[in-house]
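lol so apparently i was supposed to do this last week
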Amino acid sequence: MYATILLLHLLGAILWTGGHLVLTLSILPAALKHKDPRPLLDFESRFEKLAMTALAVQVTTGMMLARHYLPNPALWFAEAQPFSVIIKAKLMLLLLTLLTALSARFRVLPQLGAATSSNAGSPVKTRLLYTMAAHILLVTLLSVAFVIVGVGVRTGWFY
Ligand code: HEM
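anyway here it is w/ protoporphyrin IX containing FE bound
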């Protein structure tokens, strides 16, 4: 059972972090270079369902893995438990990820989509494009941090 949950956690990590790395390293630079949000909006609309599924898998399997190490969730926040550093770090990364993703999805993306389809003046579109780029970069850095903290469980980097 533990092995299956770990496998699902790793597959979800590949999808979530890998997708965001492709977005940041391949799609975003082209969109910024040509000041054209369309490839970005296109990728976002195709990737959104997969990404949300991957994040749901990460949260579910992550909690199960955390319970594997510390079955009592009250201990996840106990100072005396060295392993709780990992769980607290993961939960903090999750909170920051959710806040950034919600801001991108419900604040920036609708405005960027509207500015793109109405052919709004370039300065407005460019400002929104850079705001979106900052959100993408932050979620990508957080996704890599999730992996680093996760690998730290076996390597003992953090405790
Ligand atoms: C997008 C979010 C996440 C990503 C990309 C991610 C990624 C990873 C990776 C790559 C590992 C290393 C697995 C290994 O050493 O074989 C790991 C381990 C782990 N993760 Fe996550 N994780 C995420 C979210 C979470 C969440 C929300 C929790 C819940 C607290 C969590 C809890 C754990 C635990 C407990 C381990 C240790 C598993 C083990 O090695 O036995 N993760 N994670």
